[in-house]
Amino acid sequence: MVEIDFLTESDRAEWETLARGKDTYFDVERTDADYERTWRRLIDGGQVHGIAARLDGEMVGVAHYLFHASVWYSGKCYLADLYVDEKARRRGVATAVLEWVAQEARDHGFPGLYWNTLEDAPARALYDKVGRFHDGLIYYSYRRSVSPGGTAASGTVAGGTVAGSTVAGSTVAGGTVAGGASAVSGNACLGVRALPGSP
């Protein structure tokens, strides 16, 4: 049976192992300071929430999410990260995590659970069962700085198909945050990788 609860201080080492596993899978490089900053956000009781999923007492999955207002709809819950260790996949862990987060979102008045995934993500086999696909959405991130010559000095505008979903009766924004701004993360193999500009 999958057991799910909020992350606590004693979970740090296991959480970081899974977080680094997720980043390795997606070929994302982070510094030790990045992990420390994110860990503090997850357990300091602020806007960002973190949970752990366990099988037989061993942490095998993590998820990170946040609640936010919406312009046109009820409050939203953005699932930023969902990762399940490869050895524990296809045992109901990701489904249990999605259901847990959906219930948590409803209980706090943010029933619109949504997430985004890569177009070719193997995890879509699950997401297509529990969610609703929104075809045709494209992800952009604002180019934050411009060099004196007028060209982008850093940042990119990324284009890609975005999939949104509905879980346990919650309406999905399909990649739209607060009724207008796009936010994206990529999840594959029951993992999620936040892209630049996502919450």
Question: What order do the SSEs take from the amino end to the carboxyl end, as H and E?
Answer: EHHEEEHEHEEEEEEEE
Distance separating the two termini = 31 Å
Please, what is the CATH homologous superfamily? Answer: Gcn5-related N-acetyltransferase (GNAT)
CATH class division: Alpha Beta
Backbone shape: globular
**CATH architectural type:** 3-Layer(aba) Sandwich
Instruction: Estimate the mean pLDDT confidence.
Output: 78
Strand content range: 25-35%
Beta strands, count:
13
Strand arrangement, largest sheet? Answer: 1-2-3-4-5
- Number of domain modules: 1
Fraction of helical residues: 10-25%
Can you walk me through this structure?
By secondary structure, the protein is α+β, with helices and mostly antiparallel strands. The chain is built from four helices and 13 strands. It has helices spanning 12-25, 32-43, 93-107, 124-130, and strands spanning 2-6, 48-55, 58-68, 76-84, 112-114, 137-138, 145-146, 152-154, 161-162, 176-177, 181-182, 185-188, 191-194. A five-stranded mixed sheet has the order 1-2-3-4-5, with helices on both faces. A two-stranded antiparallel ribbon has the order 6-9. A two-stranded antiparallel ribbon has the order 7-8. It is globular, with a radius of gyration of 17 Å. The protein starts with a strand and ends in a 5-residue tail after the last strand. Keywords: Acyltransferase, Transferase. Pfam families: Acetyltransf_1. This is GNAT family N-acetyltransferase.
